[in-house]
Write a structure and sequence with these properties.
The complex is a heterodimer. Chain A is 32% helix and 22% strand. Chain A has helices at 48-56, 95-98, 105-118, 126-132, 149-162, 182-196, 207-213, 231-236, 241-248, 265-271, and strands at 7-16, 22-32, 37-41, 63-68, 71-72, 88-91, 167-171, 199-204, 216-221, 224-230. In chain A, strand 1 and strand 2 (22-32) form a beta hairpin. The longest helix of chain A is centred in the middle third of the chain and has 15 residues, at 182-196. In chain B, 40% of the residues lie in helices and 25% in strands. The two termini of chain B are 34 Å apart. The chains are: A alpha/beta, B alpha/beta. Chains A and B meet through helix 5, helix 6 and helix 7 of A and helix 8, helix 9, helix 10 and helix 12 of B.
């Protein structure tokens, strides 16, 4: 990891219109280096996806800034983005909507390759990318509907990586997949990112997957990061009551037949408080 | 007492190269008032087994063997049963809950109607009675403001509430057997905990029998009474929960348990990736994963 983070955000705020406005992301600062996998976890509705979209520039920020390499990321929208920002790629939750159903898989991965070429990076053959995600090179001539959900998501990952990103932002990339392939696809993403020297922001509500692939973990509750740091440290010894509750709710596979603990509503009150020490958990 | 007995079940996929076995002769007994967990990787045939029980296999698949449903001493053979017989059993005596409640509930029909429609069809109850029962069901599954919920639509609820509603819909006709296919996989862990408590409560209180299909051994350990592990269409091990987790007999079960989180970051992802990509990983099995991906 280099000293200069590839991606950093400062006090990002995302609000949605309404009365009163809904503050989905409430001042989040984070930094991710090259070759580092950072997971963002939290329950649905905590603002994880809004933050991811703000980071990549497709969501309007109410305030705060995002830096990628050494340039500020403006709000880009979903239109064609300036060349320098194709070094940030995103993998979305549902490959059915992120892949174009009417274009051949090879051509779509080719878009990623062109983006890399346009930035002066090395080109590559889409078929190689298919092989790297465990698909047949011949699949390049097929259309997305010819693949299963897990295979489609791997195609989407191949397309993102073909652009030779320095940062991959993945928003629940595995939650639409068949339950038993989720961990393997997540592990594949980690391996490919590290091979490419890219950083990854991996958003998931599945804590057991996160534990296996993330170097660092950020725990988000109601738009704010409540605990952050080394994944295993947080796992072994959570400091914030919210993290504790999340981890306590994971059933332990010990055969004892113990039902996991559901948090009480009163507990939720204590979860909004910020504990400064919990934001810098380091490995022992 | 056995309520559902599967014996020598074979499921074959018809392909241009001849039949390909998906499930290769399994035996499984679901006891009344118990949760029987069916574990296994993608493509191990666990979901297809559950679908075969209700005669819901895709047209490209054929099933042979026997699936016998017992109630009050009389036994019905489900496999190859005529449509009418199956129609009287689906939702009435055997109900199913799926992974994703946002696709299993109809988005444009009110929760109330989804709850009462098949109640009125199967149980021939009147509108008022059905409504009263629907409110009771929503109370049982802990959906807040049950009467108000009846008028709402699925999108107005959170994921966890939707899954509770899907369970209420499944329970509407007081079935004997509930087939639950990855019922908590799409949920947050905090919400999952509540749904697992609900399932356990239903089994203990009303004597429901549940066939729980899941890849999550944590879930299995929390609620299942018996656990059957499937791999590549066959059963590798079936044992009471405690025994399976503490003294697994089969090498494959041991490898599944060993692969649980807690293993170190350096080595585990590589093993998983190799499994996914179908590369040989020594003792760890891979054909099941590689095979199954293609026919989701």
């Amino acid at each position: 990891m280099t000293d200069q983070p590839v991606l950093s955000t400062t006090d990002v705020v995302v609000e949605y219109r309404g009365r009163p406005p809904l503050r989905a992301v409430d001042g989040v600062s984070l930094a991710i280096g090259a070759g580092e996998v950072v997971a963002l976890v939290g329950e649905s509705g905590c603002g994880k996806s809004s933050l991811a979209r703000a980071v990549i520039g497709i969501e309007k920020r109410a305030s705060g800034s995002v830096r990628f390499d050494s340039s500020d990321v403006p709000v880009l929208g979903i239109r064609r983005r300036p060349r320098e920002f194709t070094g940030m790629q995103m993998v979305f939750q549902d490959p059915n909507s992120s892949l174009n159903p009417r274009r051949r898989v090879g051509d779509q991965i080719g878009d990623g390759v062109s983006a890399a070429l346009a930035r002066g990076e090395a080109g590559s053959d889409p078929a190689d990318w298919l092989e790297r995600v465990g698909l047949d090179a011949k699949a390049a001539r097929s259309y997305p509907h010819e693949f299963s959900g897990g295979q489609k998501q791997r195609i989407a990952i191949a397309r993102a990586l073909a652009a030779r990103p320095r940062m991959l932002v993945a928003d629940e990339p595995i939650s639409a997949l068949d339950a038993s392939t989720q961990t393997s696809v997540a592990a594949l993403m980690r391996t490919l990112c590290l091979d490419a020297g890219a950083g990854m922001l991996f958003i998931s509500h599945d804590l057991s997957v996160v534990r296996r692939i993330a170097d660092r973990t950020l725990v988000m509750y109601r738009g704010r990061i409540v605990e952050a740091g080394d994944t295993e440290t947080i796992w072994q010894d959570p400091m914030h009551p919210y993290t504790e509750a999340l981890l306590a709710a994971i059933p332990v596979p010990d055969g004892a037949g113990r039902l996991p603990v559901t948090p009480d509503d009163e507990d939720r009150l204590s979860w909004t408080e910020l504990i400064p020490e919990a934001l810098e958990r380091t490995a022992e | 007492m056995s309520i559902l007995a599967i014996s020598d079940l074979h499921i074959d996929l018809r392909t241009s190269d001849g039949p390909r076995p998906i499930v290769g002769g399994i035996d499984l007994v679901l006891e009344k008032g118990r949760i029987h967990g069916l574990a296994g990787e993608s493509g191990s045939g666990k979901t297809m087994t559950a679908l075969a029980i209700l005669g819901l296999l895709p047209d490209s698949m054929t099933a042979t063997g026997s699936i016998a449903l017992t109630r009050e001493g009389s036994t019905t053979e489900l496999l190859g049963a005529p449509r009418q017989v199956l129609a009287g059993i689906r939702g009435r005596r055997v109900a199913m809950v799926f992974q994703d409640p946002s696709t299993s509930l109809h988005p444009q029909i009110s929760v109330g109607r989804q709850l009462t429609d098949h109640m009125r069809h199967h149980l021939k109850v009147g509108k008022q009675d059905a409504r009263a029962r629907a409110i009771q069901l929503l109370e049982r599954v802990s959906v807040p403001d049950p009467a108000g919920a009846l008028k709402k639509f699925p999108h107005q609820f959170s994921g966890g509430q939707r899954q509770r509603i899907a369970i209420a819909v499944a329970l509407a006709c007081d079935p004997d057997v509930l087939l639950a296919d990855e019922p908590t996989t799409a949920l947050d862990v905090t919400v999952q905990a509540g749904v697992l408590q609900l399932l356990r409560g239903l089994v203990d209180d009303i004597g429901l029998s549940v066939l729980l299909v899941t890849h999550d051994l944590g879930v299995m350990s929390a609620v299942a009474d018996e656990v059957t592990v499937m791999r590549a269409g066959v059963i590798v091990e079936s044992a009471p929960r405690h025994q399976l987790f503490t003294a697994p007999q089969h090498e494959y079960t041991r490898s599944l348990l060993a692969a649980l989180p807690g293993s170190t970051l350096e080595e585990s992802p590589d093993v998983l990736v190799q499994e996914l990509l179908g590369a040989p990983t020594g003792a760890a099995p891979s054909p099941a994963t590689a095979d199954a991906e293609g026919d989701e």
